[in-house]
Amino acid sequence: MGIASNHYSVHDIEQLDMRNRIKMLYIIYDSPNKLLMKLGELLGREGIQVDFYVAPEELKTFNFNKCDYDVVYYTNHYSPLRDLRQVYSLKRTCGKMVLGVHAPPTQRFIFKPHRPKHYLHSLFSIIRTISEKRAFSAVHTLNSFDTRLYEILGYRNVHFIPWGLDIDLIRPYIRSKDTLFTIILSYATRYDKGGDIALKALYYLLSKDFNLRIIIILGRGYRYELASKFLQLRDKFPNKIDIYEWLPQEKFFEILSRSHVLLFPSRIETFGLTVLEALALGTPVVAFDIPGAPHDILLNMVLRGKFVGYIARPFSYHDLIKGVLLFYKIYHEKPEIYDKISQTAIDVAQSFTLKHMARKISSLISRIVTG
Question: CB-based contacts of 221: which residues, under 8 Å, 6+ apart?
Answer without folding.
Answer: 190
